[in-house]
Amino acid sequence: MEQIQATPVKRLCKIHNTITVNGQFPGPTLEVNNGDTLVINVVNRARYNVTIHWHGIKQIRTAWADGPEFITQCPIRPGGSYTYRFTIQEQEGTLWWHAHSSWLRATVYGTLIIYPKEGEFYPFLKPRRETPILLGEWWDANPIDVVRQATRTGAAPNVSDAYTINGQPGDLYRCSRKDTTVVIVDSGETNLLRVINAALNQALFFAVANHKLTVVAADASYVQPFTTSVLMLGPGQTTDVLIDGNQPPGRYYIAVRAYASAQGPFDNTTSTAILEYKDAPCSVQGIKINPIFPSLPAFNDTATATTFSTSFRSPRQVDVPTEIDENLFFTVGLGLNNCPRGSSSRSCQGPNGTRFTASMNNISFVLPPNFSILQAHHQGIPGVFSTDFPAFPPVKFDYTGNVSRSLWQPVRGTKVYKLKYGARVQVVLQGTNIVTGEDHPIHLHGYDFYIIAEGFGNFNPQTDTAKFNLVDPPTRNTASVPVNGWSVIRFVASNPGVWLMHCHLDVHITWGLAMSFLVENGVSELESLEEPPVDLPVC
């Protein structure tokens, strides 16, 4: 059972009444095997609506258990409960779970480890130890108040006050040193670090002083191993790395700080944990030895981020769809709404008296208030959503250039794009330079997809198709769309339901940077959505 509750949590010298699961921050680690069926009863003892999303779980035929509020379920009201039931089918590796309601996932999150089936093994030598490394973001405030203030004012929300590693900010913050996370390693052994970016709004660089990292998996899919001294993870992404205890026994900092690709304020602090050798000397002649610090890329080092994100390959040739039924082109980016008539200037504190917004293909996504989209689809309830999400932008423009101000204000709507069961889909995700370009981590629920190419500038179908990797592209559930650039993904729509695709920077999904695919049932029962559970929450 998972109990959502307020718990006193002290960070940065101050106690906050923090929303947690079972009083733990971060929440409990779920350890399961490929093939297991999970039954998780979530009881809401907090004062906010809540849902839980099992990030990266494919939810074959069980969309009711996916978790995003007003997409696949109504939220669990305070005092209510809901049981999530789903089976893990042919997935193994590192995923995670988190709240999918307002900004609760700032503190409501945890690791989800899927081990191989009994008698099966990793495609690399079994590491001596395995350690989840959850990267988070901490506000010295109630995160719900932060987003509510931003919604009220139309301005960008306040940036966080700290980053955390397994819930702890580390040595460089006030009142934090005694609780810094310590990761133990032994000389000569290989450890597996399961790194998860659970931060709310920030892509992060990750490095360990004097140690190389061998990447072996990402988003619970194995990759061709490659070695690097730095990782870059967008929110939502996971990366499994092997680290060898091959340095002189001692204490080495693990450090995390922002990859800030946008123009505008960001949290420029650095979180640390300590990689400590079991046989490390604590002090020399009574003087405590400070850990060695790694070199981290500059905050705006897009070249390093790109080198990393373009290093991923599947371990062997994969079955990429080559014939495409649905060729889609989605712009992703920010916008500004003009101040609504009759509004006070207090509610229009964005640039030049506007309100921040965001969109895909110029549609700023609005959650329906009274039904989830999946429920409305399943029960045929009219007026909740429409199926006219555009397959390409309503206006073609120089997406990454100087964009005319007439294109900065999107249209609000609750629109889905319909896919026939089994459709072979390609989506070009095109970043825009409206307000500012930024690296957008785009997450698709209910599916993994192949990232067959990425690049900078505007996608050119004449020349950029030559860059497509149709042999061994990586399998992911969250794609980093490069700042003022594009990514191309492909998947087969073989899982019926309503599946949210959104930017995993929560500030952007709050502003409307999202859409949903409605995948129709196939022919047989095994190609059809299950009936909704009896305890599905009502709105």
UniProtKB/TrEMBL annotation:
The keyword Protease does not apply. One of its GO terms (molecular function) is copper ion binding. InterPro entries: Cu-oxidase-like_N, Cu-oxidase_2nd, Cu-oxidase_C, Cu-oxidase_fam, Cu_oxidase_CS, Cu_oxidase_Cu_BS, Cupredoxin, CuRO_1_LCC. Its cofactor is Cu cation. It comes from the Eukaryota. It catalyses: 4 hydroquinone + O2 = 4 benzosemiquinone + 2 H2O. The keyword Cell inner membrane does not apply. Its EC number is 1.10.3.2. Coiled coil: none annotated. It is found in: Secreted, Extracellular space, Apoplast. One of its GO terms (cellular component) is apoplast. Binds 4 Cu cations per monomer. Residues 4-118, 130-279, 389-521 form the Plastocyanin-like domain. It holds the Pfam family Cu-oxidase_3. It is an enzyme of class 1 (oxidoreductase). Lignin degradation and detoxification of lignin-derived products. Belongs to the multicopper oxidase family. PANTHER family: LACCASE, MULTI-COPPER OXIDASE. This is Laccase. It comes from Solanum bulbocastanum (Wild potato).
